[in-house]
């Protein structure tokens, strides 16, 4: 375990005292934040994402989204070729032309994101000023123009969503001065999951519940001191910080994965809204029961199996908690690109005391440790999965966890199956 010896350690508070954290800085193997467009453009139904980037960015978008066919796609790439600084005025004029043409053709667009990338020609461009200029130019059409960065130099793939939602926060309307407390669920969820949670909150008697992002540009939620923020995804830190700056208060909870996580997540909202404990038990009992039963179908395949997480999606800590506590998996190492102590406080408290956490990426060190551990299942990015499979390890692509509906009671069985499937496939191959 050469990497272990070479890596600095720190600690974070856990349930049974301090948890050790390996801090890694080195070569990374993750998608950039542009990847978030693939799920965000489906979520905000009248938004368009215009990547300002190179041919590489266009290829990434095409291949990442290649499996989906749309009559009218809602993302595209304005390709900026190599230019010197003197050519930047032309770039701005070109961007104006591209945007005007796009909006003339597509009257359904209400929200346009200019998404920055990492080629040096794009870095020289001030995209936020370009967005402001275009926002004024296009105001007559009722289109808002915003910008954020999906650059691989600044973001890993789920941070693209955080950057997008954080760009929306200054645009959110202010809540009325005498507004009663409202709940704001932050982080993109599949519509079907959002509807399930809406029903549960309504059954609990929490009436004012909104989601960020909303499904349409003109339905974005108001925010202010009466807003209680419940994170649905662990990677929306900048967004939550921006909401706090507008007066909102964050609720601390585990994330809604598995029966236990979903119940604890709902309980944080119930407590903040003074829901009667008996009512809470009644409303959640059936869902908990269904989730436990659905997960138990995969217990035989998962119990006692050793799992290793490479840092990728920032979902690693909540998923590790769910797999260890509800399905009996053993955690060899749980890597995450960023270990946000505050966002993950309730999760860390539920991890086993001997868990090895690692923050950041040094892919060679982590590969050394993974090979030494010989886990039964490795959760990693696409780039690492094939070589590890060729070495005889069983892998699961972490990006699948971001694309699939995995939150809440009704998805708990599917979530367990996501981890059981590669093990079942391997067992069949070995037979
Ligand atoms: Fe590659 Fe950077 Fe474009 Fe992402 S933003 S596709 S990392 S060039």
Automatic annotation (TrEMBL):
Its cofactor is [4Fe-4S] cluster. InterPro entries: LIPOR_BchN/ChlN (IPR050293), Nase/OxRdtase_comp1 (IPR000510), Protochl_reductN (IPR005970). Transmembrane segments: none annotated. One of its GO terms (biological process) is light-independent bacteriochlorophyll biosynthetic process. It comes from the Bacteria. Pathway: Porphyrin-containing compound metabolism; bacteriochlorophyll biosynthesis (light-independent). It catalyses: chlorophyllide a + oxidized 2[4Fe-4S]-[ferredoxin] + 2 ADP + 2 phosphate = protochlorophyllide a + reduced 2[4Fe-4S]-[ferredoxin] + 2 ATP + 2 H2O. The keyword Nucleotide-binding applies. Residues 32-423 form the Nitrogenase/oxidoreductase component domain. Its EC number is 1.3.7.7. It is an enzyme of class 1 (oxidoreductase). HAMAP family: ChlN_BchN (MF_00352). Component of the dark-operative protochlorophyllide reductase (DPOR) that uses Mg-ATP and reduced ferredoxin to reduce ring D of protochlorophyllide (Pchlide) to form chlorophyllide a (Chlide). This reaction is light-independent. The NB-protein (BchN-BchB) is the catalytic component of the complex. NCBIfam families: DPOR_bchN (TIGR01279), PRK02842.1 (NF002768). This is Light-independent protochlorophyllide reductase subunit N.
């Amino acid at each position: 375990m050469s990497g272990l010896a070479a890596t600095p350690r720190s600690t974070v508070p856990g349930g049974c005292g301090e948890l050790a954290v390996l801090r890694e800085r080195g070569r990374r193997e993750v998608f950039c934040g542009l990847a978030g467009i693939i799920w965000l453009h489906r979520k905000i139904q009248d938004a368009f994402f215009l990547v300002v980037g190179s041919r590489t960015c266009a290829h990434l978008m095409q291949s990442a989204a290649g499996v989906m066919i749309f009559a009218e796609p809602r993302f595209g790439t304005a390709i900026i070729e190599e230019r010197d600084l003197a050519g930047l005025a032309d770039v701005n004029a070109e961007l104006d032309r591209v945007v005007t043409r796009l909006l003339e053709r597509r009257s359904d667009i209400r929200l346009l994101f200019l998404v920055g990338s990492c080629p040096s020609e794009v870095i020289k461009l001030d995209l936020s000023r370009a967005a402001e200029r275009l926002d004024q130019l296009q105001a007559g059409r009722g289109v808002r123009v915003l910008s954020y960065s999906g650059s691989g130099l600044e973001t890993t793939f789920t941070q693209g969503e955080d950057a997008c939602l954080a760009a929306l926060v200054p645009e959110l309307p202010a809540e009325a001065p005498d507004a009663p407390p409202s709940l704001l669920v932050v982080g993109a969820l599949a519509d079907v999951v959002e509807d399930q949670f809406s029903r549960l909150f309504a059954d609990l008697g929490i009436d004012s519940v909104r989601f960020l992002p909303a499904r349409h540009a003109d339905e974005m939620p108001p925010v202010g001191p009466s807003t209680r923020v419940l994170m649905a995804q662990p990677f929306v830190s900048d967004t939550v910080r921006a909401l706090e700056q507008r007066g909102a208060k964050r609720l601390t909870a585990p994330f809604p994965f598995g029966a236990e996580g979903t119940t604890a997540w709902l309980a944080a909202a119930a407590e903040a809204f003074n829901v009667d404990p008996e009512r809470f038990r009644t409303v959640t009992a059936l869902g908990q029961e269904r989730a436990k039963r659905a997960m138990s179908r995969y217990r035989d395949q998962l119990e006692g199996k050793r799992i290793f997480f490479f840092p990728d999606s920032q979902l690693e800590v909540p998923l590790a908690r769910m797999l260890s506590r509800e399905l009996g998996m053993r955690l060899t190492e749980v890597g995450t690109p960023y270990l946000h102590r505050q966002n993950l406080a309730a999760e860390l408290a539920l991890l086993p005391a001997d868990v090895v956490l690692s923050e950041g990426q040094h892919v060679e060190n982590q590969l050394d440790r993974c090979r030494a551990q010989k886990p039964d299942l490795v959760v990693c990015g696409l780039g690492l999965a094939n070589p590890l499979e060729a070495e005889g390890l069983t892998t699961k692509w972490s990006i699948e966890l971001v694309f699939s509906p995995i939150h809440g009671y009704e998805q708990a069985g599917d979530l367990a199956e996501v981890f059981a499937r590669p093990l079942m496939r391997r067992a069949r191959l070995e037979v």
